[in-house]
Amino acid sequence: PTSTPSNFIKNIVIEDLKTGKVSQVITRFPPEPNGYLHIGHAKSICINFELADDFKGLTNLRFDDTNPVKEDTEFVEAIKEDVAWLGYQWDGLFFASDYFEEIYNRAVLLIRKGLAYVDDLNADQIRETRGTLTEPGQNSPYRERSVDENLSLFEQMRKGDFQNGEKVLRAKIDMASPNINLRDPVIYRIVHAHHHNTGDKWCIYPMYAFAHPLEDAIEGVSHSICTLEFEDQRPFYDWVIQECEMPSVPRQYEFVRLNLTNTVMSKRKLKLLVDEKAVDGWDDPRMPTISGLRRRGFTPEAIRNFVRELGVSRGGGASTVDARMLDHFIREDLKLKALRTMGVLNPLKVVITNYPEDQVEMLEAENNSENPEMGSRQIPFSREIYIEQDDFMENPPNKYFRLFPGNEVRLKNAYFIKCNDFVKDENGKVVELHCTYDVETKSGSGFTGRKVKGTIHWVDAKSAVPAEFRLYEPLILDDEENEGASFLENLNPNSLQIVQGFVEENMKQAKPHDKFQFFRHGYFNVDSKYTTDDHLVFNLIVSLKSSFEV
Ligand code: ATP
Ligand code: MG
Ligand code: MG
User: What is the superkingdom listed in this entry's lineage (predicted)?
Assistant: First the structure.
């Protein structure tokens, strides 16, 4: 009995355990610390951790830090925080850079076996002589260097005797292979740069395709799961394991990567958004990063349920998932948990002219109409309240059931009020309504004397707490434009809208990351960056309605 639904990788694991090919399941999540994690990474995280969990296995968090120029400890810390927040505990915490000595020794072994050589061709020349799908590549003039010459040149590379790009180490496989990845791939390059973990110890660094299988083998990883772009690399992955004579044999399996509509999902582009200040950081609530989703108000449960629903497949069909599917899961998660309260955006003052001055009464309000266990609260009501500007029209169209001169509506949790008059400012904008209330119509009193068609929400003016509401739309409007390098110029100008308003008095206690449903508006999260002791800021997580069904 296992906890996650069946999928092709899981079936492979079951088979491997049955035949004894594998005795313990070990997986890894191997991010490069060159940016923050995004929702696509969440898919990989869930798959790796849950696959191991299902078979009482282990999962390592391994930083694939083989490119010193782009990597930083800020990213290492952020990645650890995000994986833990998603609810996963890694068994081992490793850095590929901790294996540099061993990886170097395996490269030396390849040289000794005549399976690697130092090449003086530069990057352009290597690309030009690699051939195409229909044309074989050409051997490098340096391909036949002796083992001894290669050994001493590689040692000199390590010592720092050469400049960046002057030499590389290449695997010696087959320049005519139908798989271009096997045409003598570069396995080491010279990079004179400070490394976040190893400092200035190294000036040569292994290439990802060479280092990754070795890292997996060193950790005893049984199933190395990656996205489909790496399928063509699998023969080289297996070649490295075999020719480097690794005692443990990991195997690579590929699944389809997650893409979301209206969402950029490459760290390179996300970094551009941050660096160009199109957003206010990696954790901007519009970002598809884990930290952005967290600040926006998504929960680990919602993200995990979303990823589970996606399943694990080798592809076929459309691979771009509707972003509204993620919204569906956060609504589901918060539906019974979030306090339902009244927030007024764009407020309009209402004076209830027949309500006694200086009187305040407390009214009862349910905390969650779908979850009675959440109980109720007391909210103040007095002569002046705020409603939304949208809930009044001087000249309403047909079927407008909210307030207009002469019309009566229900105030949620309170009384019926009727609009008698309104006040305009010098620009002709309505700034105040004069209404009367009917004491008989008190909510919960069982009043049946007459019916009204509209119910609107409100907050008591004297006690209400000012609040800022940040409303979001997707950053990216069009998925086509998302492809070009110019995507920065095609960002949605309305992706952030800031609105002022009021919330109920008892919201004074709200803390960053508390989540609420504001009647009629949707789910909101208290922003962790801009909220201060006397300034509440709410992020719209998601509106109430959805046209999306899973
Ligand atoms: P990006 O292209 O967004 O920069 P990456 O693949 O370069 O991502 P890594 O840090 O190398 O980022 O990724 C760590 C792991 O997460 C890899 O195993 C990778 O396959 C996986 N991963 C990255 N993006 C996605 C995605 N969109 N869907 C599923 N898995 C992903
Ligand atoms: Mg990468
Ligand atoms: Mg585990």
Answer: Bacteria
CATH class of 347-462: mainly beta
pTM of the predicted protein model: 0.94
Q: What tokens does 523 get? A: 């789910």
CATH class of 8-259: alpha beta
Which sequence spans correspond to the domains of the chain?
8-259, 261-334+467-503+510-542, 347-462
Which residues line ligand 1 at a C-beta cut-off of 6 Å?
30-32, 40-41, 43-44, 226-227, 257-258, 265-267
Distance CA 238, CA 236 (A): 5
Architecture of domain 261-334+467-503+510-542: Orthogonal Bundle (1.10)
Instruction: From 279, 225, 211, select the one nearest 488 (Cα to Cα).
Output: 279
Q: ∠ CA 142-147-152 to the nearest 5 degrees? A: 85
Q: Is 32 a catalytic residue?
A: yes
pLDDT for 122-144, tens place per residue? 999 999 999 999 999 999 999 99
Q: Is 267 marked active-site?
A: yes
Which residue has a Cα nearest atom 6 of ligand 1? 31
Check: complex ipTM more than 0.90? yes
Q: Could you give the C-alpha distances from 411 to 222, 450, 469, 489, 543, in angstroms and in order?
A: 62, 15, 22, 45, 21
